[in-house]
Queue: 2 jobs
Job 1
Amino acid sequence: MKKIIFIAESIDKNDSSCSKCNVAMIQNLKATGFDVIVYHYTRRPIELEGIDCRPIKEIKWSINYVLSRMQRLLKRNFNLEMHQFLEKIFGFSFTLYNDVNSIKRIVNEVLDLNPDLIVTVSKGTSFRPHYAMLSFPNSHHKWLANIHDPYPFHFNPRPYNWVEPGYAKKEQWFRLVSEKAKYSSFPSQLLKEWMGSYFPSFLDSGVIIPHQITEYHMGNVQLPSFFNDANFTLLHAGNLMPQRSPKGLLEGYLLFLENNPEAKSNANLLMLGPTHSYGPMLEHYDNKFPSIHAIPKQVNFDVIYVLQQKVSVNIILESKSEISPFLPGKFPHCVEANKPILLLAPYYSETRRLFGNDYENWAEIDEIPKIARLIEKMYKQWKSDKSSFLLNRTDLIEYCSKEFLKRTIDNIPQNEAKI
């Protein structure tokens, strides 16, 4: 039995899609028989059933801690924002340096456990556990660095790319991660290739670990009052980042209603999750059109998960871009739900690669007439035979399964050198 130790920034599945994906990977490795121990920097007590979870304590008295708190006080009391100026000099925030030092304190304890594999997982584009591992070269031969998203930001595909303060230092650190970690993992083949074009070591060390389908034990989940199980319901659940405009989806849905007036009585579009700059837009559509419902804030994962199982159609909405190497965190849940998926994504995207070029329910996010036609086609299929209105992609379910994950981990070469 392989002993695998995770060093995670967070295992709170409600704080980000990244944390949710990390928890699913941890649970599936445990379920397939690996000996799993998790060290986590979640900052609050949290447990995963049947898994040894050990919190990492934050260093509360250090120069970095004091400077980070002084910086917060200047922002709060005098609206003096220092982070850009300071990161141009130091590369990162004082908070990050303190967090990395906090995580470093447990690495020797991890090494004493003599694991077969040490996996560092990020929280979005924060890679604190990865940076901590750089200081322990005697562990690098057993280190797998999990990369959830492109980084640094100036290496993101447009329109996600921008130049951060201290970008050169961030690039230097991440290059070290790519060169020092014996293994790396990516949720997406396109992401591995994308990151490998900037950091070639990833092409040699990288394996693909897609986001996981795992078991969730739900209690009594209270669904929103506007959800009607008998209606034709389309659901977009997730973060509407500034690059993910819902305009084309909303207008495509309204054009569908205009072309199919009878659907006004039994069709709904639900938009749930943080909206950033799109809050006023969604509020307008929510107020003006009775069949559109929006909750423009973070919604509890349990509610989202149950809705994904119950709605007629799940929606994956990506940005308008030449390429999208991301695998959305909700991808395995939508596949598992076995409900048709309306895929709004670039031509070159990981989701479209997985669904295949012949997948019919795909459009770019601004192709309003095509979106309307796809919704109309799905609506007529749903009306004709609800029992057969299913996704039926067992290949994608297997791809996101714990069995596929176990084979991937088992195939990572076993290094016999001892720490």
Job 2
Amino acid sequence: MSFNILTVDDSKTIRKVIKKTLQLSGVPVGEFYEAENGKQALEIMQANWVDLVFADINMPVMNGVEMIERMAEDNILDKLPVIIVSTEGSKTRIDELMHKGVKAYLRKPITPENLRNAVINVMGDYDAT
């Protein structure tokens, strides 16, 4: 079983780091989609099957919080888990996003182990051979 993953971050470097970290962690990836902001991410979600979203908070055009709110309004968040990957880590912000339906919150920089554990916690165990 492999996961179609969407990474939403305005930094191309961070998107590449997440992709590489997923590979190193043994997460089985099918398609890997990338978006620079929440608006692009919503368009990708509408056009493609996505199993899991990794999203930053601070982005231009539409930030991660606005994207989460839109996903919640459209009932997408009920079916599509989101893991926030951000340098921002205030307890208030984390609690707010978890209350809105975010499944996990990782602080940058991320490690393969933290990423793998978050995926397992959100998606269930998989054969990471």
